[in-house]
Predict the structure.
Amino acid sequence: MNINVYYQAWNERIPSINYGDNGLRLLDDTVRQAEETGIKLILTLSNNWEAYGGMDLWVNNVIGRGAPHDLFYTDARIMQYFKDYVRIIVERYRDSEAIFAWELTNEARCYGPGSNPSSGACKPSTVTSWARNMSDYIKSLDSNHMVSFGSEGFMNRPDTANGEYQYDGSTGGDYDAEIRLPSIDFGTIHLYPGYSPGVDLAWTLEFLAKHDTSSFEAGKPAVLEEYGVSRFENGTFPRAGTYSAWHELILASRAFQGDMTWATLVVRGECPGGNEFAICEDDPDFDQLVTDWTERMNGKAL
């Protein structure tokens, strides 16, 4: 049975919260089940992309369809509506033992999936300023839980970028500034090298090492929050060898204190074909990449 699930709806450019059975009551059930099973949750509060009602949905409803994507970070009306939404979510679950952290957004950039262009005025300071504003606001509501940004870890080092978007600031990312925000408690990095033509394993290890150094110098931990190479890849990034190299770096690092694959699935039978990044229980490398790695990571000193 398909259920139309949504937490917020728009009517005449005004948002309203759905507290019903296909709204926050379902999130209530998720949080309750996490409490009962000892699972910790990172609740992500928005998305750069269109899935699950991304930033463009806010822009389209408040300003008008097709308005610049990055107005999400600067328009006073959107920012207030977003704070109203955040307040409802945070206050509803801030006393839950299941909450590990609040995450501002998923993969914030100056641009989105394409239907809403960038204004051209967005730069790293635009996105970082928004992150400071929102993380400070969440801490004012709940000082007992951590806050993360949810960024991909892109850097703003144009003098040494060599034309690479991961380092030139063009996405709006500035990891060095983000990790130093007072209300951001740990850094996040997302790594999918298959989406970056021309990179190799050595490049990815250097990318992670730079984040380890930046985080350590800021006095903050870091999490490789999402990562994936295709389960069908046998060329530049064979999965077992690639993950093992990243895992060894994490174990030896000074700042990395966690990692989360996209995604680990415990399923009966054949692994779902629609997720090329899935690690499934019957995969020959499951024990190496999940069971054994979890035990090794649990032994790392904090």
